[in-house]
Structures are given as C-alpha cells and as structure tokens.
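Notebook p. 47: complex prediction with 1,3-dihydroxyacetonephosphate.
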Amino acid sequence: MRVPMIAGNWKMNTTVNEATALVNEMRPGLDEIDKVDKVICPPFISLAAVKELIKGSSIQLGAQNIYFKEKGAYTGEISPLMLADLCEFVIIGHSERRQYFNETGEIVNKKVRAALRVGLKPILCIGERLEENETGKTEEVVTKQLRSSLAGIKYPSDLVIAYEPVWAIGTGKAATGEQANETIGLIRRNIAKLYDKEIAENLRILYGGSVTTENIAEFVEQPEIGGALVGGASLKAAEFLSIVKQTSEIRVVREAQEA
Ligand code: 13P
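Predicted complex, structure tokens below:
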C-alpha cells in the first residue's frame, strides 16, 4: 500500500520571519499525525531556518526549484549540491516555471537528472492547460510531458509525480476526484509502459490545483491518487493541518478495509 503524501508548495510567499512563524504554528499538530508523509516547500531563503525548526520531527523539507549545473558562473541559481544538504525533495517542472520561466521538457529532464544525482527526490509536475483540456488533448499533453521529463532516466525509485491541471491552479476551480483519478490512472499506465507494472503500482502520484479542507477527501479517497500538492491552503496552518489529518484518517479506514 502506498503511503500518501501531502506536500505544501508555498510558492513565492513568506519572508524568513513569516516562514519561521508558520512552521512554529504547524509543527506540533503536524508532527502528531501519522500514516502520511508531510512535506513543506518554503522559498529557498527560508530552507536553512526551517530545517532547524523541524529537526527531530516527522516533517520533511522540499525546495521549489533547482538548477541542473553543479556549480559555477550562473548568477542567482541554486545548485543540486546546495540543496542536497538542506532538503529531501525538490519540486521540478511546476507549470508556473514552464509558463513564466520558459522551462521546456528538455530543461525539466536535466533538472530531474541533476536532482537524482545528488539523492534529492523529485516531485515532478505535469498537467494540461485549459484550452488543451477543452479540446480533448489532456492525454496527449500529459503523456508527452511525462516522456520528455523522464527521457533516458533509469527508473528513479524516489520519484513522486504531481498531476496539476493548469486550469485548476489558484483558480478555486479544482478538478473533480473522478477527473483527477482518471488522468492519474493514465499517468500510471504510462509509467508501466516506460518502466514496469510494479514500479507503476508503487509510484505516488499526487493531485494539485485548488486543494482545500473541503475537497481533499474527494481526492484522497480515489484509488489512484496518492495525496496532494497544495498551494494556497498550505500557507494557513489550520487548513494545512486539516488537509493532512483528513488524509491520515482516510488512510486508516482504507487499511482497515484491506486488512
Ligand atoms: P493552489 O493549491 O493554490 O491552487 O496551487 C496548486 C499548486 O500549484 C501546487 O503546486
């Protein structure tokens, strides 16, 4: 049985002081919840401070981006080696980076390789835009993104995939549980083709896009959905805690059913 994951993508929000305050508010409650992998992804500048604050807890840390070169004259970039010391996960290929920073499939592929080289676990984001969804191109787009992101990569056992339809991100217009489950099932079948069935079965594929305390259950109750990548709602301690708690409770029920 896959352990569900709830990851909070704070995006470009919080100063170091605000990040510290938010972690202090979340930590006690979050640490108590089991049966779920809990990951928070603050901005780069807060990673070191947050790492200290979550020491000894069950909360894990992720970054939101990475550069693929190891070091050198790349002003303003953050290398895999710098991150490897600080965190366990790194979000790669988020649609905001594809859209605003021109990240292509080739760049995403280089970043996934760079992360794996230093032992960072990639949270690889894929998802279709509104017009692609409306013209029935979801399957084609998601398959293409998946294949280009993983091209030539021997199966990375530490991979997590996040299916984030672009039209659902920050819009308050989430996909339905069934929609997300269907596309995530398709992604899993593609992974089975690229690698093998067992690998596909074990892979966690998260849903992301306007996840809230109100709709989280609808997603994590679905058999294909392995958790959520949460944006806005991860910036409010009580909401994020509730999302993680509901996920844990659903997991407990499922364990009992399958026992
Ligand atoms: P929202 O939850 O704010 O829609 O953001 C989703 C997201 O992009 C997470 O990476």
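Notes: The CA atoms of residues 105 and 148 lie 5 Å apart. Residues 9, 94, 164, 169-170, 208-211, 229-233 surround 1,3-dihydroxyacetonephosphate (CB under 6 Å).
Next step: compare against the earlier run before touching the bench.
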